[in-house]
Amino acid sequence: MSVLTSNRAHFFSTSRTHPGAWWLAGLALSLSASLSSNLVALIAISAGAMFIVRLCRDNAPWSRSIRFYLFLGAIVVLLRVIFRVIFNLADATQDVFLTLPSISIDLGIGNSLHLLGSVSFLSIQAALVDGFRLAAIILSIGMANSLANPRKLLRATPGALYEIATAVSIAINLAPQLIASLKQVRRARGLRGHSKGIKALTGIIIPVLEDTIEQSMQLAASMSARGFGRKGNRTHLQLLLTRVSTFLTLTLLTVGVAMLLFSPVQQHVDLMVILAGLVFSAITLKLSSTRTTRTKYIVQRWQLADLFIVISSALILLAAFSGVFSK
Amino acid sequence: MIEIKNLSFSYLNAEGKQKSENPQLNRVNLKIEAGEFVLVCGPTGSGKSTFLQTLNGLAPNFTGGVITGELLINGVDLLGAEPHEFSHLIGYVNQQPEGAFVADLVLDEIVYSAEQLAISKEQIAKDVQRLSRLLGLEDMLDSPLATLSGGQQQRVAIAAALIAGAKVLLLDEPTSALDLQGATEVLTLLQKLAKEEGVSILLAEHRISRVIGSVDSVIVVHGDGLVTKGKPAEQFNDTRFAPPIIELGQKLGWNPLPISTRQAEQLWERAPAAFEPKTINQPSGIVCEVIDLEVTFGLVSAVKKTNLRLFGNQITALMGENGSGKTSLCWAIQGSGTRTSGGVKTSAGDPKSLSVQERLAVTTMVPQRAADLLFLNSLADELHESDTFAKVPAGTTANLFQKLTGRIDTSIHPRDLSAGQQLSLVLALQLVKDAPVLILDEPTRGLDYAAKRALANQLDLLRDEKRSVLLATHDIEFVAMVADRVLVLKEGLIIQDSSPLEVLGHGSELASQVAEVTNEPGLITIGQILK
Q1: Closest residue on chain A to B388 (Cα)
Q2: Residue A173: closest CA among chain B residues belongs to which residue?
Q3: Domain that holds residue B119
């Protein structure tokens, strides 16, 4: 068993795979989850994401952030169910699962608000599906974040997206950094002890935030001292055009995908928006590649393992689109 | 190369106005030549870092503040420019390389700034080859940075700072987190860079004695805005930061002052002074007994099966290279750290099994990052909270703190205290708890000689109260000053447990400066020498 896992970890380990592959897989899984309304499928996606992290992660600081996402997912599921039980629209025709005393609050505008009461099987199930859908999306993104080395991802981004990618990768880096710092500060706080009346939270949050901000500033200073942010031989106008075009690309693509997911009625409009986004992305790439401002000394190549990751996650997404996970 | 004219720098106060009454740097004028090796020193908190950072735009761009004057680099005034406009001229290396790394692999890290500056691939390949040979990094280009030792990491940081063609190197205490071996490694390389490559080096460094023999000049940042540059021997009238050999020369009235160990040796040989034997205090009873203690993290064994007795009325130094298990052992003994097996016996039981409140009454500790223990908004609140927690009369902590640092305005935010003041504050908070065992992990990091002497006096007082102090440190001179007993840790095992005279004496690997210079058996620290 140990031989098997160590071999597998070698082939798919995050130190060898392309970080882009993990983000594509994470996005495919989260898209599949958002298209699904089957509880079993959603739980399978969540568990699958966790399992993949277990199998492929290296001993890197960001790989531990999956626990944070797991915690977040669990809270989302729990809240969904609790809210459904409290704001329960009792329906007499449904099978009753749990009977609680009903509370009515007169709102003074003719109708009253009913809380609690008898909870049906179906409403609990619907709440679970909603909760697990969100949890599966969170865990899929968490998987990508835990497995993709943010620094490698930054190296692999095309020049036009470089500045935005830097901001994003520093932001992504923040979660694991916060966790590491939290651990350290909590341990140190045990050495101080605190008397009653002092809020325990301030004692942890202040040093953790200070530490995290300081570290981010240090990284930013180091990047700047080493030439990051030079505009090279581009003119101010070129720089401005590139930035505007990058911004438009990202906005159009995000809005298009959101429309595709949340309002499937206007299918033509959302496809047009996505198309416009793609056109702008081509313009952005063209604009930024007219003059070299950066050298890529080492190019991260796509390996067989990356291809495998991308193809298998694409298959899952295809299955989701064809409606396999809906029933 | 670099010429500074009338350079002034001041931070802004809370209202966003310039603190003109006490600028960090006030009308500084100096020149640095090509290939010049300059040591930058000054007391704790005097603004050494700020001075270095003004030279490549990090101050004020990343620190805030106002800068005026002229900063000519190769004749071009770059005052106020962003740091990236300096990256082909000036390389910058700071205290903690791991916090400033932008990549994971050595090669990626080295080429980063060459990539940013769009230097051609062929040129980068040539420079990588040249620098990796020069800095001894050829065999580790494909290694992850995290697997390198501290000294190796700093060598990578130096290569990365020079790859874009910079001919000036700024280093802000590059060895403060390194053990003796790592520090020697880095300092030797710097000398080579200055001599063979013609790189101008500005080095802020607290291990002054290790480099002073090979620097061309010394810049002193005095802390009141004054910055002076001159020959090494002329610059050390201020004992707050004078290294041990200079302090020795001052004590014995040598003129001119020695700047290298060699010179000091000759001067001592000519006129050796009388000295008293080192006071080694007799230990009182056992305060704490470590039994079969082991600490493992995953597959890594940090502390191997260890047995150890700590006595009252004794200061025990715990020495050893980085990664030898000093910090893990400290946390395990204190009781809140990881333990794999074994235990610790004290009068109140094993600290691990006690509640936080009970544990702190037996074993207290000042960790490496002392500031993590501070969390309130003013010094007054911190002192008050400490009195309440320890159930001592109001003002007890404040009195102790004042004894360590002198009077300080208590409305100040604890984060605005200097490193030395923060350490004193945390020390006061921990001492008030009155625990019989006090553990200090690297307490002298970032302290100047004056602050170290104050700390040593405080530790002496504690010893007189029959407490047991365990001190994990790399600081040989400090150990020579205070310790009654020295433990040397290697790969998780205590390999030596003996008197400081033996461990720090002449000929030993960890010999103190005074032992090296005087070559007298039984003499390890300046305090022993009679005037």
Answers
A1: A195
A2: B102
A3: 2-235
